[in-house]
Specification:
With about 110 residues, the protein is an all-alpha fold. It has two domains: about 70 residues; about 40 residues. It contains three helices and no strands. It is flat and about 70 Å long.
Length: about 110
């Protein structure tokens, strides 16, 4: 009879340990599993409504159109990059200059 109580106590301890392990599992992976289920459900709904076929068609047509484009050479790309960098610097300098002048004018008026 004493052994039965010890075995029962051991079984209860094992169940408590399993509950703690299960709890830490849900704390570790609960949100991940939740989002996997949500994304899976969204995927299933989109598939059912035919949106995935439309998206695949859109991607295929976009790739076809991109193949028709003419892409710049490496030298053209470098030249365009320099022009854009200079334009940004000039526009930034102009903005700073106008801001400085307007600030001084408003300070003189007040």
């Amino acid at each position: 009879m004493g052994e039965t109580n010890i075995e029962t106590a051991g079984a209860v301890t094992d169940l408590a340990g399993a509950a703690v392990a299960s709890s830490s599992f849900w704390q570790s992976y609960g949100w991940t599993l939740f989002w996997v289920c949500v994304i899976g459900a969204a995927f299933a709904v989109l598939w059912y409504k035919g949106q995935l076929v439309r998206f695949a068609t859109y991607v295929r047509l976009t790739r076809e159109e991109l193949r028709k484009c003419s892409w710049p050479s490496w030298d053209e790309l470098k030249g365009s990059t320099v022009v854009i960098a200079i334009s940004i610097l000039l526009l930034g300098g102009f903005t700073v200059g106008v801001d400085f002048v307007l600030t001084r004018v408003l300070l003189l008026l007040t």
